[in-house]
């Protein structure tokens, strides 16, 4: 009689932890930033094609849906950046104690939120 063993890791046995959520989020933000790079190229090509195509693309980014997309890209950028800095620290073989891992994880989340908010507040004051 063959026993059916659960596949590892069995997602039903584990609950999400900060470390796993941040790992998954880092991969997702990498994909999101790649799509943002495509959006940047579209914006630059529209600018090179002339005022009419540029105004169409610029109009989208100035709209509410466009602003939400830009806000999401901004948060994705900072989450990916801060997560990357965390990994650079780990590459120096520091911060592997459990308390340090959770402290740095929450620091990544907090820093991403603060940096995103600061960027958008600065853009509002600069009249962008």
Key features?
128 residues; mainly alpha; 3 helical TM bundles of succinate and fumarate reductases
List the helices and strands and how they pair.
Elements: H1 18-49, H2 51-62, H3 64-91, H4 98-125
Helix pairs in contact: 1-2, 1-3, 2-3, 3-4
Largest sheet: none
**Structural class of the secondary elements?**
mainly alpha
Residues in β-strands, percent: under 5%
The CATH architecture can be named as: Up-down Bundle
Report the order of strands and helices: HHHH
- The top level CATH class name: Mainly Alpha
Instruction: Kindly state the number of beta strands.
Output: 0
What is the share of helical residues? over 70%
Mean pLDDT: 93
* Radius of gyration from the alpha-carbon trace, in angstroms: 20 Å
Note poorly predicted spans: none
Question: Would you kindly provide a written description of the structure presented here, covering whatever features stand out?
Answer:
- The chain is an all-alpha fold and 128 residues long.
- It has a single domain, classed as 3 helical TM bundles of succinate and fumarate reductases (Up-down Bundle), CATH 1.20.1300.10.
- The chain is built from four helices and no strands.
- It is elongated and about 70 Å long.
- The mean pLDDT is 93.
């Amino acid at each position: 009689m063959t026993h059916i063993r659960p596949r590892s890791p069995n997602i039903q046995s584990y609950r999400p932890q900060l470390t796993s959520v941040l790992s998954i989020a880092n991969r997702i933000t990498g994909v999101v930033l790649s799509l943002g790079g495509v959006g940047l190229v579209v914006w630059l090509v529209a600018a090179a094609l002339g005022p009419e195509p540029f105004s169409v693309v610029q109009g989208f980014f100035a709209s509410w849906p466009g602003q939400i997309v830009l806000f999401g890209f901004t948060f994705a950028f900072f989450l990916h950046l801060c997560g990357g800095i965390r990994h650079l620290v780990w590459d120096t073989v520091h911060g592997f104690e459990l308390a340090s891992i959770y402290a740095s994880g929450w620091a990544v989340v907090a820093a991403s939120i603060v940096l995103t908010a600061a960027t958008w507040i600065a853009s509002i004051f600069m009249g962008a």
